[in-house]
Predict the 3D structure of the following.
Amino acid sequence: MKLSKITKTLLTVMPAFVALAIFLVPNMSQAKVSMPSILDNTSFTSIGSIITFIFNTLIIVGAVVVFVMFAIGGIIYLTGAGNEEQTGKAKKLLIDAIIGFAIVLAAYALARFVLGLFLNGNSSLPSID
């Protein structure tokens, strides 16, 4: 049975991830982590807080869409098994996901800069809330 380069790479790298998970998960389970809710400490007292909330929500949605595109593209590529049509479709989806990630990242940086100008009155990037 002939394995593709990606399959060989995954079979080589996967044991390392499993080993990391075995050693890190017990340590992480003892840590006290509180997951913040998107609506915690949200008080819409000004138009700036509403815009910031909408912006943060859109960035989260964009990041989830990019992650799903990566996952679907990877699955299609791995299950294509040499079928040029399937692997071509998967490569296009992965390239689109990379472009989407760049757009989300640029939108995040630009919007943080603009929000900092209008809401805080300075041109430095505001801290993440």
Summary: The two ends are 52 Å apart (CA to CA). Helices lie at 5-30, 47-80, 84-120. Residues 37-120 form one domain. The chain has a mean pLDDT of 74.
